[in-house]
Amino acid sequence: MNRALCPVCGAVSEKVLSSYRSQYSPEDYKLYKCENCDMEWWEPLKMQCYLYEEGLFPGYEKLHSLPNLKLGSNHRAFFKNFPGPWSGRLLDVGCGNGKFLMVAKSYGFDVWGIDIDRQSVEIAKSVLGNNIYFMELRQFVKFAKERNLEFDVITFFEVLEHQDRPIEFLESIKSILKKGGYVAGSVPNRDRWIIDETEWDYPPHHLLRFSKKSLETTLKVAGFSNIKVISLDFSFKLKEWLSYIKERYINISSLQGFIRTILSVPLSLVFIGDLIGRGPYLYFQARKI
How far is the CA of 24 from the CAs of 29, 41, 51, 80, in angstroms? Predict the structure, then answer.
């Protein structure tokens, strides 16, 4: 019998939605759903850090060049919704080439970053200075505690869905967050208009699939308050969708998914009422009390 424990609430699930085999791993994965908290996750649930350290996933090469300051809708949501103050020490977990941090610095934050992609870290350092580190979160938490470092804001965009122990991840982040400080970030929206049939949203790359309910529950279980989760809207701007297509499908052979994404913009005009909150991302922010 198929049985697995929900990585968020601990409930036993026997509901398998689908299966998958990746070219990057010999594992046969099964997608489970928790009837208690609405989380979906893949078993075996194990993060493979070496895949990022060795740059094996297509698309990551774009993080190995100097960043431009053109932000995606997930990053823009932070600058639109964060309540302030726009100052203090900000840590971006999974900072990539430092694009978000460059904009955050222009707003007045003292910016720090960590990533497990060495090449991205070197690029970010070249534009932001020495407070960028090639470290896993647990290494950085130890580093920060040894130096009595605490942060006013900790962000992690498109990071939480990669975690095999999401509550432990969030509790580690909370341990170096000041009292009254904020976390903020984004995850792929499980209920987005286009479900990509490409490797980027499957294991061992993405291990968790969030709905608005399951994301709110995850932050609550981890002990955060003032939780706000926003389902970003589908964009009707052709320029944004061409950028999305390039990001998701460059060097990826998925003709069916590519064609469906191309057609999504004109087709979406027929279903405007159904597209509220069905963009690619869920943005979140929450507070440590």
Answer: 12, 18, 8, 37
* Residue 265 confidence (pLDDT): 53
Same domain membership, residue 283 and residue 148: yes
Same domain? For 158 and 34 the reply is no
Condensed to tens digits (0 to 9), the pLDDT of residues 223-257 reads 999 999 999 876 555 555 555 555 554 444 455 55
| Same domain? 166 vs 256 | no
Percent of the chain past pLDDT 90, that is, above it, reads: 65
pTM of model > 0.90: no
Q: Please check whether residues 95 and 191 belong to one and the same domain.
A: yes
Mark whether 29 and 55 lie in a shared domain: no
Q: Is there a single domain that holds both residue 166 and residue 262? A: no
Average pLDDT over residues 138-160: 98
For the chain, the domain total comes to 3
Tokens at 201, concatenated: 């949203």
User: Can you give the CATH number for the domain in which 210 is found?
Assistant: 3.40.50.150
- Name the residue with tokens 């090449």: 119
pLDDT in tens, 162-184: 999 999 999 999 999 999 999 99
Which structural domain, as residue segments, surrounds residue 20? 4-43
Do 30 and 87 reside in the same domain of the chain?
no
Mean pLDDT of all residues in 85-91? 97
